[in-house]
Amino acid sequence: MMQIARPSFPAKFRPRLLALIGLFLPLFTLAAHAQPRQHTNPLNLTPEVREAHVLFYNLDYDGALSRFEAIQRAHPQNPMATDYILMTVIFRELYHQDLLDTTYYAHDSFIFAKRSVTIPQATRDRIEQLTNSAVALCDQQIKANPNDADAWFARGYAKGMHASFITLADHSYVSAARQGLSSRNDSEEALRLDPDYADAKMAVGIQQFAVASLPRFLRIMIGITGVTGNKEKGLDLLRQCAAQGTVNRIECRTALSLFLRHDARYAEALTVQHGLAEEFPRDYLFRLEEANLSKDKGDGPAAIAIYQRVLEDARKPGYFTDPRLQMAYFGMAETQRGQNLHAEAAQNYLNAAAQPRCSEWIRRRAQLNAGQMFDLNHQRDKAVEQYKLASAAGGDQSQADTARKYLRSPYTGS
After folding, report:
1. How far is C-alpha 197 from the geometric centre of its chain's CA atoms?
2. So where are the chain's domains?
3. What is the pLDDT along the chain (414 residues), one digit of tens a residue?
4. How far apart are CA 259 and CA 211, in angstroms?
5. I need a surface site. Which of 29, 94, 117, 280 has the fewest CB within 10 A?
6. Torsional class of 379: left (φ above 0), alpha (ψ -120 to 50), beta (otherwise)
7. What is the assigned CATH class of domain 43-263?
8. Of the candidates 288, 276, 287, which has an alpha carbon nearest to the alpha carbon of residue 250?
9. Distance (Å, rounded) from C-alpha 322 to C-alpha 355?
10. Which DSSP symbol is given to 109?
11. How many CB atoms are closer than 10 A to CB 268?
12. Is 273 in a helix, a strand, or coil?
């Protein structure tokens, strides 16, 4: 058999060849194992953080919080670890206050709502402390290294979370807009330093859309602070973040669905929301939002069917974590009302009001609406009973004037 000759180096060159291999082999090994720049804080990529986020997206806020607190103890100088806790504390409180019911924000009426929200002082204090702590850590890191994109992003993240809280809980629109602008500026700086820092596009996108959606007089007030907006730019930035982001991918899809719903682009919103509900089938809010969007789209039967499936799953022990069933009952009642199913709507308004952890705001809305359904069914005694409950002294008074009006004369549907 013919043997192929192997190339050989003269013996005098072999020591030099071995020396060169010894010099460059470690470099080749490092290159083979080097990780490309991930355009995010490395902490965001750890299994511990990902696992905690899954608990968060399944609304297990207590479970997520305990995980994030452990992460923060292990990384006390990393501002993202503090941001995780801030996010969880804020959203847990908003959920407990029924402030994550997206129907509340689908139209501009929430801006003028009389709703009063009572946040426990201890919770307010912790939100302020966490915000200040995260911002202070970022300030130190930016001072030490002005080119630290992770620090710029983390500071914008903390400010953006705090702006969301004071918007939803306190209706502090001008203060929130100023803080939102600061968050946007920090995020834009992160993008200037690293144009592929996709998560930073969320704050810019949300603020662009939100400001452009405000009523004209509020846009004028906020415009004095230098804040401007553009809806399509905002939506495009959210799409980019949803596709390429690391820590904000789910949040951007949630915001995208809400904003599309606000602009009555229901088919697009449903596509986004269905993907979220499929990815997190045990997220009560994601499932509920599919029904809400079907209702707003005008497909009442489909919406009712989804509400019913959500309520059926809620009866399965442990399927959802802390489901706030008043949202599902109220949404189904609204849909049945639109289908002229007045008796069924009245019953589900009552079901919503009867939930033990229903906020006073939703309870009195449900009582008022139940009274209206009873009036349309000529059950005046039952209607009066509900109007009295909705207008009772103490607690939330946002429905009181309307309820007293129908105590004087029956609701006729006009």
Report:
1. 20
2. 43-263
3. 444 444 444 554 444 434 433 433 333 333 333 344 579 999 999 999 999 999 999 999 999 999 999 999 999 999 999 999 999 999 999 999 988 877 766 555 555 566 678 899 999 999 999 999 999 999 999 999 999 999 999 999 999 999 989 988 887 777 877 888 899 999 999 999 999 999 999 999 988 888 787 666 555 555 545 556 789 999 999 999 999 999 999 999 999 999 999 899 999 999 999 999 999 999 999 999 999 999 999 999 999 999 999 999 999 999 999 999 999 999 999 999 999 999 999 999 999 999 999 999 899 999 999 999 999 999 999 999 999 999 999 888 889 999 999 999 999 997
4. 12
5. 29
6. beta
7. mainly alpha
8. 276
9. 12
10. G
11. 16
12. helix
Cα–Cα distance for residue pair 361/172, rounded to 1 Å: 19
Among 57, 76, 86, 95, which residue's Cα sits nearest to residue 323? 95
Amino acid residing at 297: K
How long, in residues, is the chain? 414
Cα separation, 17 vs 247, in Å, equals 47
CA angle 382, 387, 391 (to 5 degrees): 155
Tokens of 78: 């990393």
Name residue 310's amino acid.
V
